[in-house]
Amino acid sequence: MRVFVTGGTGLIGSAVVAELLGNGHTVLALARSDASAQAAEAAGAEALRGGLADLDVLRAGAAQADGVIHLAFANDFSSPEALANAVAEETAALETLGQALVGTAHPFVVASGTPAAPGRVSTEADPLITDGPVGGRGRAVKAVLALAAREVRSSAVRLPRTVHNEGEGGFAGILTAIARQTGLSGYPGDGTQRWPAVHALDAAVLFRLALEQAPAGTAWHAVDDEGDQVRDIAAVIGRRLGLPVESVPAETYGPLGALFSSDQPSSSAYTRQTLGWEPKHPSLLEDLENLRP
């Protein structure tokens, strides 16, 4: 299958591209810079120059492919306005890609987030988050899944709060970056809230399985660790960086403060049983041992 991939040179995307190429697919990767194009081509993909805001380029990429995997996101959490702009850009991109695929029966796999289910572990049957600072992403993904009624084999791979590789990435990566900046490995509240996690190489396998097998309109959970307590995550970060570990105000994390403070464990039991996905790489706490001071 020839697959158009957005975000193909990021931490998750590079793993997805390698997984696709290693399993007989070819890849057309969206590349917003010369450096990204070179990285995509070095990995064995063909590069298509453009960014998420280049809607004509997205249409062209989808038209040249037998399927689409969408991973790109601006990841600008510096302010509520920056986050809102990133969500709006992604929403327009998803609408454009979806419309280009209507009537083709081609697979369209989008990255989403695992939902929170107060008082219990969330499952694939729980609805997407459609309110709060990242609620717009949930609404955009719901619209993609609704394209199942228009002959698009759309599916969502719901990613946990931390997708990691060599100790980097996701919410844990944000904690690490702030720890390096401030000299303190912090966590919001009492730190007993739980975050799910998965290794990027395991997540990449699920994106491929969804591309190849997922029925239209379905959601899947790329979860290995159902929920690590945030204070345990911060403790490993602090030990690896040689920094003190303390509770800090939720405001430390800007527009993500409320999300960082919530308990969000998640299960992938249905995904494993149905698609045969089985994570094989290190857990988050094990992988954080790769952090360098």
From TrEMBL:
InterPro entries: Epimerase_deHydtase, NAD(P)-bd_dom_sf, NAD(P)-dependent_oxidoreduct. Residues 3-216 form the NAD-dependent epimerase/dehydratase domain. GO terms for cellular component: cytoplasm. GO terms for molecular function: aldehyde dehydrogenase (NAD+) activity. This is 3-beta hydroxysteroid dehydrogenase. It comes from Nonomuraea glycinis. The lineage of its organism: Bacteria, Bacillati, Actinomycetota, Actinomycetes, Streptosporangiales.
